[in-house]
Structures are given as structure tokens and as C-alpha cells.
Amino acid sequence: MSSANENPLRLRVPVLLVLVMWASAILPTRLTQFSMTTVWFLMVGLGGAMLAYAGWWLAFSRVTVADRVSGVLLMIGALVAGVQFTFHHTAGQFMPMLVLLLPGVFTAVTFGMLLSKSLPWGMARWVVAAWMLMAVVVWSGVRVDGSDGRMALQLSWRGLPTAEEVFLAQRGQQEGVSGVSLEESQGTVTLAEGDWPCFRGPQQDAVYHGPPFPTDWNLHAPKQLWRRRVGPGWSSFAVIGDRLYTQEQRGEQEATVCYNGNTGDEAWAATTDARFYKVESGVGPLATPSFYEGAIFSCGAAGAVMRLDAATGAVGWRRQLTTDLPRDTPPEWGFASSLLLVPHDGAALAIVYVGNPDPTGESSDAASQAVIAYHSDTGEPAWTAGVGNHAYCTPVLASLGGVDQVLCASNAGLESLAPATGERLWFYEWPTGEFPRIAQPIIVDDETVVLASGYGFGAHGIQVSQDTGEWKTDTLWQSRNLRPYFNDCVHHDGYVYGFDDKFFTCLDVRTGKLAWPKRTRRQTQFGCGQVVLAERSGALLVMTEHTGELVLLAPRPDGPQELSRMKVLEGKTWNHPVLAHGRLYVRNGVEAACYQLPALDIATRSTGDGVSR
């Protein structure tokens, strides 16, 4: 037992435990793909170290019983205060508290003990308490601005304006209260060759079939036409002629916005009162608008589905997913499915994946309502079907075995539905439990589909066949070398190019074997980015997650070959890049930009040998 005139603390154990806390908080997300293993490392390593620290304090610190009890109570009070007041917009969020606040406070306490080691305990206890209080005060000035794809939180000081606040202030100054100009919104909008009418392009495969362009951007760099701030959101672009359609957050409203593709100026915006927020992913809509027959169809993160006039933004109809289906709240990460438009009876069906919190797994059961189809002209529901608690994938229209069908990926597996009725054609069961399935299924040919998932699950090659009217599926191969989170893949000449965690890689679709050697991974560590294939140019355009760079790679199975790279944006980028009409359109949660791609004839004239460089 100590007296007030001596300091009884021996600090090797608490210092070691603090190091274990930070190692448990940082290393799992940096060294492994985020999965249940990562969660266990966090819980066992961080939680175990904190319990051990508490045990050391109560049993082996050698301070008085009163100090031990008061120290525990003070620590609990500090942690409760930190959870409630520290994180802007995230009070009570478990992950920030666990990963940042707790080891931060324990570190401050230990540092206070080290600084006051030479002081009598009667004075040292107040130094330790002051450092504990200081930790809470410092953390109270911190704001969580989301995380990267590996769940590493991004922090800034609370007193600084958010990117959304800067955008809203500039928009109000430049465009007045409404901020909407209709100067570019007159006339009829029609689909033309070269347009990019929906998420991942006209075939939903992220392949650009436009004119080839030179891929040596050191000699022939794309020219920036414009750059502008946008509201937060992870929506991509739909491009119809010189109009860009996207979604973003504007204060307490979700907005579907039309921008002038030539200037970046806003043409119109249609809003709905909704604001979806998740501490890791941030605020804003996730889905990409879809164009069909003069109309734009959008789905907000909170579940608002709208049909809008593509020229003016006038609302044709509006529905609410949480009203039309059993799901009465958005899924954990918000509604992310873009709408699939399938021609039907002179109009179309607008199909969206929603997820059912209590699915039965049987397509004939009335409770199987994970997918809904709306009549595009009236907004009335046409059918509901489908299984899965949740998913963040967009339905894909595919022709398999000569039959058009809608493929819906979810945490239950991959399901095929008849477009007109929602009747189940086949179901490939591959559950992921509570882990979300986000990456789009990859259509290889008329009988082969690749389904890939992150969180350590990997990829399956699936063969789909029909025999005497009965559909069946077979697993061709399984691989742990393609594990994308929300990073979609592309298929080219028998190979899938996509993300395995933070590494861009290549897989043989016939065997599921890795084509690019693992030793080349350092060359393709792009984070959780996105990719689009410029087929006629022989280039994969890979958007990096952290650096805002666009990297051009040759689509070759013998190994990664970098052709060029160029910085096109600032900050974290999860949005899919778009190529349309010889232009590159990119955006993230802060800004958008347009680049004119170099012309191939200029490149061949400049080299003088008629060879594209």
C-alpha cells in the first residue's frame, strides 16, 4: 500500500498493454482483408488489453484502494463522456469509440503516469487525472469524416468546415437560394450512340466501346475542360449527350442533379427530404441515375425512388421503398441499388433490389420481397420477388441460355428472375451472413457468371444451363484471389480484372487461377478503387482510392503493365469513372471533373510512324 509521499507505480506492464492496444487497433485493418477475423483481432486484442490494464490497476498498481476505485470510476466517466460528446455526428458509434477513443484515453493516462513518475503519488494522481481529462478534451475537437475501404477512419478538426459545408456556401453565393438553372434543360432528351445511360454503362459491364485514344498520357495527356465542387455521395454518372446525371447530398435533402457536360454548370436539381449517414461511409446517396425514354430514374439512400423528366427535372412520380416493401428502415449502409430499366408492354419495368429483413428463401412465398419492379410510366408496383436480407448490388440484365433474365446478388447468393413477372428461374446459394455483398456479378458468356465478394469470401465461377426446361447451376471453380468489397470488375478475353482487397489483379475465368503473379502486387496497390475498360484502346482505367490518380494498365494476363497515370481528382474516390463521347468524367464526394481524351490521329501524326503510342 502506498502513501501520499511515494509513487508506487511500476509502468512496464501498462506501457506494454498500450502498445498492444494500438497494434490491435491499427495492424489488422492494414495487414489483412477486412473480415470476421479482423473483427476478432480488434475485439480480442483491444478488448483484452483494456481488461488486462484494468486488472493491473485494480490488483497490481499498489496504490490505495480508494485511488483504485476512484481511478476506475473516473476512467468510466471519461469514456462515457468521450462516447457521447467526442465524435461529431457519431456519438455512441461503437467502432470510433473502440478503435480511437479507448486506446487514446489509456495512452494519455499512461503518459501522465510516466511524466509524473518522479513525483509523490499525492501529486502524481492529479497529473494523471489531468492527462485523462486532456485526452477527452482533445478528442472532443475531432470529427470523423468517414473511413477508407479498409475501415481506417479519416479524422479532421471539428472547427474546420466539412466539404459539404464549403460546397453549400459556394453554391449559395454563386447560384442564389435555389441554385437551379434551366437554361440547358429545354427540348427532348434522347438516347444516342456513345451515351452511358446507367450504372456501369449501356451493357452494365463498365466497358467503353468508343473511339480509341492514345494511352501514353505523358505525351498526349487528356485536357481538363472543367472542375467543380459537388455534394457528398458515391453516385457515378449517367451521360446522355451533353447532360450528366448524378446524385448528391445537399444539407437535409438528397438531390438528383443534371449538369451540363460541356461546362459543369448545373441545369436542374430534383430534391427529396432525406439524409442518410453512416460513420464509416459518410453522408449521401449511393446509387446512379438511370435513363430510359426521356426520363431519369433515381433511388436515394433513404429509399426515395423517382421518375424525373430528363430535360427539366420535373417529377413524374415518386415512391418510397420502405412503404412499398416489408423493409421499414434502410439497410445498414443505405439503399445502394440503381434502377434497371427493362422494356415491357410498350413502356418498361424499373427494377431495384431492396432486401427483405425476414426472407423465406422460397420464391413462391409472399414474404420473398427483396426486389420490386415498378411500371416506369405510372410508378405502380408490377411485382415483388427475390430473397436476401440485404445487398448493395444493382440488378443486371443478362442473356443466359438465350433467355433474358434479371440477376440479383445478395447475401443469400445469386438469383435469376424473369423480367416480366419476377418468377425465379434459378438460384445459386452462397450465403455471406451479415457481411454485405456489393460487387456486381460478371457476365462472361451465355452460360458463365462470376460472383465475387469481399470480407474474405472470394469468387465463384458459375455455370448456368437449362435441361428440358429446368435450370441448374454448377460451381466451376472457387478462388480466394478475387475479393472485392464494392469494387467492380471487368471481363476481357477470358480474364477478369478487378480488386483483391486493395490490390488490382487478374484471374482466369476458365480455371479461377490467378494470372498475375502475387509478387507484382506492389505495382497494383490502388486501395479500394474502381475500373473501366476502354476496349478499343487496349487500356484498363483504374481509379485509385486515396491519391485521386487514374492509372492506365494494359489488359494482359501475363502481368501488370502500366501505360500511364494522371492525377484527376483530390481526395478519396469510390465513385465509378465514366467514358462517353471521347470524354472522361470523374467525381468523388467533394468534386467532379471532365477531361477531353486525346485524339488518336493527333498521336499518330506526332510520332510520325502511324503507330499509336
Automatic annotation (TrEMBL):
Residues 223-324, 366-516 form the Pyrrolo-quinoline quinone repeat domain. InterPro entries: PQQ_rpt_dom, Quinoprotein_ADH-like_sf, WD40/YVTN_repeat-like_dom_sf. This is Outer membrane biogenesis protein BamB. It comes from the Bacteria. The chain crosses the membrane at residues 9-27, 39-60, 72-91, 97-116, 123-142. It comes from Posidoniimonas corsicana. SUPFAM superfamilies: Quinoprotein alcohol dehydrogenase-like (SSF50998). Keywords: Membrane, Transmembrane, Transmembrane helix. Gene3D superfamilies: YVTN repeat-like/Quinoprotein amine dehydrogenase.
